[in-house]
Write a structure and sequence with these properties.
The mean pLDDT is about 80. The chain is built from 2 helices and no strands. It is mostly helical and about 60 residues long.
Length: about 60
């Protein structure tokens, strides 16, 4: 029975980590260059509601 090639598996994991890190850095640079489009991409922008009044029980 052949022995598993752990070096090959380790290299594949390291390459996947490197690729993920590069993609993350690329996304970070894109966000840095265009911060106004960040809200549109994530969809987590807070709705601006000028007509809302806070509840006050006086």
């Amino acid at each position: 029975m052949a022995k598993p090639n752990y070096r090959l598996a380790k290299r594949a994991v390291e390459e996947a980590k490197k690729k993920k890190k590069e993609e993350k850095l690329k996304r970070k640079q894109e966000r840095k260059n265009s911060p106004e489009s960040e809200d549109q991409e994530t969809g987590e922008a807070e709705p601006e509601d000028d007509t809302a009044e806070p509840d006050q029980d006086d």
